[in-house]
Amino acid sequence: MSRPKKILNDPSGVVTELLDGLVLASNGRMIRLEGKDAIVRSQIPNDKVALLIGGGSGHEPMFPGFIGDNLADGAACGQVFAAPAPDLVLAATKAVDRGRGVLYVYGNYAGDNMNFDIGAEMAADEGVNVRTVRVWDDVAGAPPERITDRRGIAGDFYVIKIAGGAAATLGSLDEVYRIAAKARDNTRSMGVAIAAGSIPETGALTFELGPDEIEIGMGAHGEPGISRQKLTTADAITEQMMAAILPDLPFRSGDEVALLINNLGATTMMELLVVNRCVRRILGNAGIAVHRTDVGSFLTCQEMAGLSVTLLRLDDELKRYLDMPAASLAYTSN
């Protein structure tokens, strides 16, 4: 298979260059920490609980695209598909801290867990209080009894959105943590893929699929899912995904949810919307109401072709923070 074409300079410097481009596109709302692959809001209100997100690059707009009003205050960005180093996490933590503590939100991967934990310990040594919410929304990653082994995928976005709203309005790190953890615990996702993304520095594909194959439950880096099969119709694929997502929480008749249809990189809006209509039919038949729908690119894997579906079960408290106005380069809501 031929190497994917990309419009880059030196691939080894792509993270620094993408962050510089992001800062310039923010029209002064963000700055990059000098000499580091971390960006923060240029104006963080005093005396607020800070929200720091982050992880490997290559999933844009996750994570740095979600820095802004009622969203994250900063992001620590590792190399492509690699966790940010502990010293980078520490620098970003100190840059966003305003005296009320810092909440970390990131996807549940071993490298991120280790490096953010070390960063939190280093921050504690310098007097900064940190709490952590690891997102593990991918129902294909492990069975329910091992939910803490699951991967974080596009459900990160809803946890960040809710945590950002809570951090902007509440003065207690413990309360912001409680609300973010509640959002995490009510979020379930699954992805499917029909073609691989690649690693910019090497051009290597993250996985291989036959020309007529689809992976059900594919992870954000190309981790294997629950089955590999022949490509079939959008409705049949969506029904398989929903059959795994709905019983996992479980979601029940009378629930109200937020629905996220996420493009993994190279999937058209046409395909996302075709899947959305099937998801809505399934939810309607199950007696589950949709409070809001978000469709687009939230967590990608370079040019991976595929999509994911996320459901967040809502109550009045979660709706309050989810529906708060927000503004960032990648996402704005009124």
CATH architecture of the largest domain: 3-Layer(aba) Sandwich
Uncertain residue ranges? none
Shape: globular
Radius of gyration: 19 Å
Order of SSEs: HEEEEEHEHEHHEEEHEHEEHEE
Number of helices: 8
Text of the CATH class of the largest domain? Alpha Beta
Q: Work out the count of structural domains.
A: 2
Instruction: Count all strands and give the number.
Output: 15
Class inferred from helices and paired strands: alpha/beta
Quick overview of this protein structure:
The chain is of the alpha/beta class.
What attributes characterize this protein structure?
6-stranded mixed β-sheet, Hypothetical Protein Tm841, Chain: A,domain 3, globular, Rossmann fold, about 325 residues, about 25% strand, 2 domains, 15 strands, alpha/beta
Structure notes:
The protein is of the alpha/beta class. The protein has two domains: 12-185, Rossmann fold; 187-322, 2-Layer Sandwich (Hypothetical Protein Tm841, Chain: A,domain 3). The chain is 31% helix and 25% strand. The chain has eight helices and 15 strands. A six-stranded mixed beta sheet has the order 1-2-5-3-6-7, with helices on both faces. It is globular. It starts with 13 loop residues before the first helix and ends with a strand. The model has no long low-confidence stretch (mean pLDDT 96).
